[in-house]
Design goal:
Oligomer: single chain
Structural class: alpha/beta
Number of strands: 12
Largest sheet: 7 strands, mixed
Strand content: 5-15%
CATH class of the largest domain: Alpha Beta
Number of domains: 2
Bound molecules: pyridoxal-5'-phosphate
Strand order of the largest sheet: 2-8-7-6-5-3-4
Helix content: 40-55%
CATH architecture of the largest domain: 3-Layer(aba) Sandwich
CATH topology of the largest domain: Aspartate Aminotransferase, domain 2
Number of helices: 16
């Protein structure tokens, strides 16, 4: 770092101090995750009172800036510790973290080959491998910052397919319809609003009790909409629903998509990673018949946030939908410039960490990690089922274990677990009842750790019941 003219010597961080500080930060985080997996719960007011968060115009020398970062990290809830079961990601993969560090250091913009070089080829290799596993070996794809945006991009492709004039001329009066199950992720409705189709365009296809789309309802809904002047734009099947981890019946849904000619997108943001496991990939059987598929590696594959891919069965679609002329940027080999088929201009390189992790673990190692999650979920489900004070909603479809503690509000229980620094576990509604949703997403967990957290959860529930 060069010296800032306005500041005295020693104010700016010297380059040669950076490696040591980075090592200190990493070491501190790992030690804290082990010693204090739940960071002390603090309210926004307490945080604002104890940390100098506001940007007040003052300037800190690098040593104070570093100390401030340490303070903020110490106060940040850990999603990488062994007490985090709250979202569809968790744990950490050291090699993937190294990959992420490499991406930060190289700071490749990922829009042109000229500025990103070999990183473009790394990203392509990742997309190719994911496409092969998804049964879309000849298609293309793009990396997006999260499954929500991959779903959004897929909706734009589907919109352009159903309403070919829409990219140039907008949507004059077309009544678009999107079909997604009642258990689909909220990003579908959000994308419909963003894509100019309207949130109201999303029709909810009934789901069965396990949260799987009832494919037999889909065809009649599409026929009915067509008969009344609607334009069916897209079917969104979910592979791994957010709450119950259910997989929609893709072959039956693909049959309807093929008969009706409606674009089929598989939102496999959550469940896509199951494709790396020969033992469990049957859950996504038929996904290669879809037109597009969202797959978040940052969920089950334990790579740092974010790493999401949109894959397409046919080539060239992303460039058709997202290319814009920019003579100041795209100047060399158009085919090598990922920016021509991307939602973004400059973007973080999310592929490198996944590529490195895959190189490190190999196919077998990746599969073993996924298989482990299913084993852990089955273990927890068995413990829940055999406990007289617990009610398992149903055998888990994948790695989400949903259950109730009899006589205890799941919402209050999960809040108490968080506030008392026991664990972060989510709650959701299943069959109209509020339930604990415990996601087993870190392959490093042991069954003993899961048992210990369950015992603590039961102790907190007993405390709540007795008013403690
Ligand atoms: C099924 C499904 N789709 C999409 C998403 C959105 O993914 P992201 O958080 O990466 O935007 C999620 C997130 O949980 C999800 O469960």
């Amino acid at each position: 770092m060069t010296q800032t003219p306005a500041h005295p010597p020693g104010f700016a961080l010297p380059d040669d101090a950076l490696p040591g500080l980075a090592a200190e930060l990493v070491g501190e985080h790992l030690r804290r995750d082990a010693a204090e997996p739940m960071r002390p719960h603090r309210s926004p007011d307490e945080l604002l009172a104890t940390l100098p968060i506001a940007i007040d115009g003052g300037a800190l020398p690098w040593s104070e800036a570093f100390a401030l970062l340490q303070q903020v990290l110490a106060a940040t809830p850990s999603t990488t510790s062994r007490r985090f079961f709250n979202q569809l990601f968790g744990g950490r993969d050291g090699v993937a973290i190294l990959g992420e560090l490499g991406a930060v250091l190289a700071n490749s913009p990922m829009h042109t080959f000229k500025a990103s070089g070999v990183q473009v080829l790394v990203e392509r290799a990742v997309l190719r491998r994911m496409g092969e596993l998804a049964g879309m070996p000849d298609g293309d794809g793009m990396i997006a910052p999260g499954g929500s945006l991959s779903n959004f991009a897929a909706m734009i492709l589907a919109r352009n397919h159903a309403l070919p004039e829409s990219r140039e001329r907008g949507l004059p009066g077309a009544r678009a319809v999107i079909y997604a199950s009642a258990a689909a992720h909220y990003s579908v409705a959000k994308a419909a609003g963003l894509a100019g189709l309207g949130r109201g365009a999303v029709r909810s296809v009934p789901a069965d009790a396990a949260g799987r789309m009832r494919a037999e309802c889909l065809g009649p809904m599409i026929d009915e909409d067509r008969a009344t002047g609607g334009v069916p734009v897209m079917i969104v099947a979910t592979a791994g629903t957010t709450v119950q981890g259910a997989f929609d019946p893709l072959p039956a849904i693909a049959d309807v998509a093929e008969r009706t000619g409606v674009w089929l997108h598989v939102d496999a943001a959550y469940g896509g990673s199951v494709l790396v496991s020969p033992r469990h990939r049957g859950l996504l059987e038929g996904c290669g018949r879809a037109d597009s598929l969202t797959w978040d590696a940052h969920k089950l594959l334990t790579v740092p946030l974010t790493c999401s891919a949109l894959l397409t069965r046919r080539p060239g679609l992303c460039a058709q939908a997202f290319d814009e002329p920019a003579s100041y940027l795209f100047q060399d080999d158009a085919l090598l410039d990922p920016g021509r088929g991307s939602l973004q201009c400059a973007r973080h390189n999310d592929a490198l960490k996944l590529w490195l992790a895959w190189k490190h673990h190999g196919d077998d190692g990746m599969a073993a990690r996924i298989d482990r999650l299913f084993t852990l979920a089955a273990h927890l489900a068995a413990r829940v089922e055999s406990h007289p004070g617990l009610r398992l909603c149903r055998p888990p479809a994948s790695i989400n274990v949903c259950f109730e503690v009899l006589g205890t509000s799941s919402r209050e229980l999960c809040r108490a677990l968080w506030e008392r620094n026991v664990a972060q576990i989510g709650h959701a509604v299943v069959d109209g009842r509020e339930v604990v949703r415990w996601v087993l997403v870190d392959p490093a967990h042991t069954t003993e750790e899961i048992d210990a957290v369950l015992d603590e959860l039961l102790a907190v529930a007993r405390g709540l019941a007795s008013g403690a």
